[in-house]
Design goal:
With 369 residues, this protein is an alpha+beta fold. It folds into two domains: 83 residues, 2-Layer Sandwich (NE0471 N-terminal domain-like); 252 residues, Clavaminate synthase-like (Double-stranded beta-helix). The strands form seven sheets. A six-stranded mixed sheet has the order 9-10-21-13-23-11. Strands 12-22-14-20 form a four-stranded antiparallel sheet. The chain is globular. Fe (ii) ion (FE2) binds next to loops.
Length: 369
């Protein structure tokens, strides 16, 4: 891609076509001190109130800068690389990280190690890229005292507090308001499908694990969805169409949200899965349609629960598992609470946390793809 001039017109050439860049698009991007606050990077003028018919009186390219004189008296120098970075018209940091599909044959994915200066390090950039590729990441030796998990989450972004609190303690306890707080097996599920919006990322941090069972399980919902689409298109279609009601009720709150088990984006690509058969209620539909829906949900559940897709591992004290709750499903094997303590702490963060940190670190360390 190249920026070229034709008299006072600024053109971008992508090798196939040349197109004029609208003068107002350039006028909006003037970034001299008078027009852009250097501390906040926010505009000091309101482009929406300017005349969009602004013209360029003079244009030059010098030392990788575009030098412009606009007919409203504003002069500006704009970095050509900055213009080039906007060519694609979409996010060029997170979106290009390709999701890697995986199943039970997933080999050893790199595990990372905690260090005091992790949050501002290149290692953290690598952790976040790995998270976006696989839908989960494990960091070892994360301090376990004083709810350190919350500090961890707030050092990447900010904790998403829920009615379970800023964080929650996952241990077997009397009178639980969720089956997570028992010693029962938990089949693969996504958390909190009844919230609007659903928390994007779950962090689970192991404080103690003295029992023989209590293994953690993970399934890549993206892989399962794509396989279902290929092998059972009818099932895939109905699960991407029917909105079901997810609900959570306890003594203090009633949460409810409606969505498809497989949610697609505007281009009909994978966006998000929701799966928690403890909490889902399909509406009354035509009997034939419900018949197909129930078959499809059973198939999906069989796939999520099958050995083929599941990885199983034991979290040890200090291990921190960060998972994409819109992509991966997690669960655990049962355990015998009389054998000792099994204690995990959990909390949520949203994508703005990981995206914001990743963009910041990529720029800070000048990391190319
Ligand atoms: O106990 C576990 O390993 C996971 C519990 C769980 O599903 C959760 O806390 O969301
Ligand atoms: Fe869970």
């Amino acid at each position: 891609m190249k920026i070229e001039l034709l008299e006072n017109k600024v053109l971008f050439n992508n090798g196939l076509t040349k197109q004029e860049i609208h003068p107002f698009w350039l006028r909006e991007r003037v970034s001299e001190e008078k027009y852009l606050d250097k501390g906040t990077n926010q505009r000091l003028f309101d482009p929406a109130s300017l005349d969009s018919q602004v013209k360029i009186d003079e244009a030059k390219i010098k030392d990788n800068f575009l030098e412009l004189k606009f007919n409203d008296g504003v002069n500006s120098k704009i970095d050509l690389d900055k213009i080039a970075s906007e060519f694609s018209g979409e996010d060029n940091v997170i979106k290009p990280i390709e999701k890697i599909k995986w199943d039970s044959k997933l080999g050893n994915v790199k595990k990372f190690n905690f260090s005091d200066n992790l949050y501002e390090s290149k290692e953290m950039h690598e952790i976040l890229v790995s998270f976006y590729k696989y839908g989960f990441v494990i960091i070892k030796n994360v301090p376990t005292k004083d709810n350190y998990l919350v500090k961890f989450a707030n050092s990447i972004g900010s904790v998403r507090r829920t009615n379970f609190g800023e964080h929650f303690n996952v241990k077997s306890k009397p009178d639980p308001n969720d089956l997570a707080y028992t010693s029962l097996r938990l089949s693969p599920h996504t958390d909190n499908p009844y919230r609007n919006p659903v928390p994007c990322i779950q962090i689970l941090h192991c404080i103690d694990n003295e029992v023989e069972g209590g293994y953690s399980t993970l399934v890549d919902g993206y892989t399962v969805t794509e396989d279902l689409k290929k092998e059972n298109p009818d099932y895939y279609n109905i699960l991407t169409e029917v909105k079901v009601r997810f609900q959570f009720k306890d003594k203090e709150v009633e949460l409810e949200s409606w969505s498809e088990l497989i949610q697609l984006d505007e281009n009909k690509n994978f966006k998000q899965i929701r799966f928690s058969t403890r909490l889902d209620y399909v509406p009354i539909l035509e009997k034939k349609k419900l018949d197909l829906y129930y078959k499809a949900r059973k198939k999906l559940s069989d796939l999520y629960n099958s050995q083929k897709y599941r990885i199983e591992f034991k979290l040890m004290p200090g291990d921190l598992l960060m998972m994409d709750n819109h992509r991966s499903l997690h669960g655990r094997t049962s355990f015998d609470a009389s054998q000792g303590n099994r204690f995990l702490q959990g909390c949520y963060i949203d994508y703005d946390s990981t995206e914001g940190k990743l963009r910041h670190l990529k720029k800070k360390f000048n990391i190319d793809d």
